[in-house]
Amino acid sequence: MVKRRREKKRYKRNIERILAIIVFDIVLAGIGLVIFSFFHHVLPQSGGAGVALEKNPGQSDVYTITLVLQTSLSENKENFIAEGFLKNGANLSDGEFEMIYTSDTLEYIDCSAEEGVSFSPEDGRLVFSFSSPGEKLFSCEFRIIGKLSDSPAKFVAESGNFVSIDGKPVVVKITDGTETETPEVSDGDFSRKFSDKFTGGEIVKTENTYISQNVNVKLENVRKTVNGKQISFFVADIYVSRVEYFRTGFAKDTYGRGYSQDIEDFSQQKNAILAVNGDYYGARAVGVVVRNGVYYRGDLYEDVLVLWNDGVMETFEASEFDFDTVQAQHGGIWQAWSFGPELLDSGVSKTSFNSKVIPSNPRSAVGYYEPGHYCIVVVDGRQSGYSEGLRMEEISELFAELGCKVAYNLDGGQSSVLTWDGKLANSPYKGGRTVSDFIYIPEE
Questions:
Q1: Cα torsion at 399, 401, 405, 407 (round to 10°)?
Q2: How far apart are CA 139 and CA 118, in angstroms?
Q3: Helices (H) and strands (E) in the chain — how many of each?
């Protein structure tokens, strides 16, 4: 009896131990799952949904502002102009930084900037204060009183950098000026490279052209016969002084599926001189989405078109696209679309495509000549006697004839809609339809 009781007790203890081990393993697994979910779903990945992209994608919870100081001499070689551009994908609360200059080399004359930027000059330094959202420009003028050093002025962060309105830290990254001659292009600034394309500030506007200090757009309607078909299409030739003027927008200013808007309403809301449908990201749960420097989605769909912060544009097949690698190039991604297919191979037309929509259709597509110079093509279609649309190889040939180095197909069909000065310009199939996103050039 005693022996039997001991065996029962031993058996009971063993069962309790086994149960304890099982409970411990379940608890441990649960803790691990929580930790994994937190890092994988709560913390933003590769920039995080709706987070401004950085040049260093490793710090996904930090916004980055790029301050570019270009140093150039005026024509009389007596004055020194420091031009700065505050690039930002997030709204900012109050922030300060300072620019230090060598007072024995430069004498401060004056500063000018947009609303929301103020200056507090002192001997040898200028304190800049920002209290407004979005992108801001400023310029400072100095008189040269001594020999110019290699870097006569520099920016330094002050007061713990900036803080965004949602509380995340903002890292200030500096590119200081070292040139004594006018730089041709710097970090997405093409104002000097294409100085003959822009005005000094006035706006010159005609029925089909728009020229301002930062934008030059010409819209042409072409009607021709292509392989026996009557075709009507629009070509918008676009120059921008900075890559930030090649913009995108979401329907109802909201990212997410289920939102759509009429393009005329959108273009009037954004005061767009030109607007066209985008890639209709909202129709899919996958596909890379980066808009105006902000990362929203990184899941691959098909061919990807990237516009970097330095104005370079390139297409990628999904199999060769790695987000972190691409984001680390050319100063980071400004725009990324996911629809396709790519239409050119190093400027040469193609005959095979990563797409099933090959037959004649209405088309919307983007072309690239060089940084700061782009084009948009919208082809009307499915309208016998007026315009039947283009096959994929035909629109590829069109971009090759235009001289583009890169071209990319956007959403088409009934989505292919183009507005000029807030009004419908083309004749979309069945009057067009509302879409989830747009590409536009702002009117000043």
A1: 0
A2: 12
A3: 4, 31
List, in order, residues 6 or more apart from 162 with CB less than 8 Å away. 63, 65, 92, 93, 95, 97, 130, 169, 170, 172
Domains, the chain, in order of start with CATH, read 63-175 (2.60.40.680), 195-442 (no CATH)
Q: Is 160 exposed, middle or buried (0-12, 13-18, 19+ CB in 10 A)?
A: exposed
Of residues 288, 430, 425, 410, the one with CA closest to residue 343: 410
The Cα angle at residue 140 between residues 138 and 145, in degrees rounded to 5:
170
Residue/partner pairs of 37-43 with CB below 8 Å, 24 or more apart: none
- What Cα–Cα distance (Å) separates residue 333 from each residue in 54, 212, 338, 401, 408? 9, 26, 14, 28, 17
Task: Write down the pLDDT at residue 121.
Answer: 75
CA distances from 292 to 88, 248, 418 (A): 9, 6, 20
DSSP structure string for 257-317: TT--B-HHHHHHHTTEEEEEE---GGG-S-S-EEETTEEEE----S-EEEEETTS-EEEE-
Q: At 383, is the secondary structure helix, strand, or coil?
A: strand
Bridge partners of 156, per DSSP, are 98
Pairing of strands 63-68, 169-175: parallel
- pLDDT tens per residue, range 399-422: 999 999 999 999 999 999 999 999
- Distance between alpha carbon 312 and the CA centroid of its chain, in Å? 11
Three-state DSSP state, 152: coil
**Please, which residues have CB within 8 angstroms of residue 69's CB and are 6 or more apart in sequence?**
82, 83, 84, 99, 153, 154, 155, 174, 175, 176, 177
Lookup result for tokens 């690239």 = 368
Alpha-carbon span 52 to 252, nearest angstrom: 20
| DSSP-based three-state secondary structure for 420 | strand
pLDDT digits (tens, 9 = 90+) for 170-216: 444 433 333 333 333 345 789 888 999 999 889 999 999 999 999 99
3-state DSSP: the chain helix, strand, coil percent, rounded to 5? 20, 40, 40
Contact 153, 82 (CB under 8 A): yes
Angle (nearest 5°) at CA 378 between 374 and 382:
160
